[in-house]
Design a protein that fits this description.
The chain is 20% helix and 8% strand. With 101 residues, the chain is an alpha+beta fold.
């Protein structure tokens, strides 16, 4: 398998590059994207790190395969560091970390 990662070139974006790299590496073991291709917004519920959180917004973490932290139904931001990412149940199932979603 071959992977291509388009990383950020600025040194102060190295932490964000770890988010991009983790996302792409997870593809190589079977994880699918959890964001809408039209607008890059996380798809509910599989693209949310904590889909049962009350209130739902703002989320604190990104689901790694969504790659963005939802702040509202229409707004999200890329996490600044990998420590603000989580592996959701759907992704965990896809990569065989769980036996059922």
């Amino acid at each position: 398998m071959i992977g291509v990662i388009h990383a950020y070139g600025k040194i102060d974006q190295n932490a964000q590059n770890t988010v991009v790299m983790a996302h792409e590496i997870f593809h190589t073991v079977g994880a699918s994207d959890k964001y809408a291709y039209q607008n890059n917004q996380p798809i509910y519920p599989s693209g949310y790190a904590q889909p049962k959180q009350k209130p739902l917004y703002p989320q604190r973490y990104a689901e790694v395969m969504a790659g963005r932290i939802p702040h509202s139904q229409t707004q999200s931001t890329m996490p600044k560091q990998l420590r603000f990412c989580m592996v959701g149940k759907t992704t965990a199932f896809e990569i065989n970390w769980l036996t059922e979603p």
